[in-house]
Write a structure and sequence with these properties.
The protein has 310 residues and is of the alpha+beta class. Among the domains are: 100 residues, Nuclear Transport Factor 2, Chain: A, CATH 3.10.450; 109 residues, Roll (Nuclear Transport Factor 2, Chain: A), CATH 3.10.450.540.
Amino acid sequence: MSPAMQAAEEHAAPATAAGARLQQMRRRVRLGRLGVWAAMSAGPIALAVAVATPATVVRAAPATKPTTVKATVSANPSGYAAVFLSAWLRSRAGAESTAQARLAQSMAPDVDLPGTADAQPEPDSVVAVRSAQQTGTAWSVTVAAQYADGSVRYFAVPVAADSSGASFTVSGAPGVVAGPARTKGVQSPYTVAVPADSDVSSTAGEFLAAYLAGVGEVDRYLAPGVSLSPVLPAPYQTVTVQQMLAADQGAVAESVPADGTRVRVVAEVEALDSAGRWPLAYELTLKARSGRWEVTGLQSGTAQAGGARS
């Protein structure tokens, strides 16, 4: 090959490589233009996204298995046993078509009805007083039946529950049992006698008169942040403190102690209405503030902490 031709080929090779690179660049420009035009046709927002946002790889989240939550039902068939015994005591063999007999047999299909005479007294009230779980699904419920003459008879009613506690059945005939024994009373913490003319007695007595008899407003005796609604309609005409005992010596101080001092008292009161006299007792908590006692708690009432009051 002549030197001239060799030189021409050497010059042509770089030109061919450069041309290939130029073609690749032109393709990229054309693709870029197509992408921009497509984005412009979709709107300016899409254009901005197309220009500024890099490509993103989206991966599917791994599938999760649903979680099954099992709710545990506490099976205490005391109410069921009381309803059954009430119907059973009001039923008798030979009168299976009565409403009470049908109810008793539906709750205890395998239990016979009493074979009593028509003159058999029916209970005035029937209430469950105790229940004991013998096994996982077997219960024994003690039910008291009170009669018009004041007598009380106790029955043990066996009840079976399903595993979820949603269904019950009386599994056997009830049996007469002795009633629960009376336990010794707990020693009262209220051992300090509060004078009738003390500030504590005055505040507690006036508060209870407002609470039970509608004498004045309840709010004026309450501490800031305490809310308590009176009994409505007022059930009594008058309320008088008969005795007051305290659990703290601060309740008998000659003057109201420092702010924040708390005392607990039990007020034994006599409430009068059109039917007669009612001996009642209320446990109160009082707190000293600005030289006066204010009620902060009523054990059997609805006193709750609320927003601060001025």
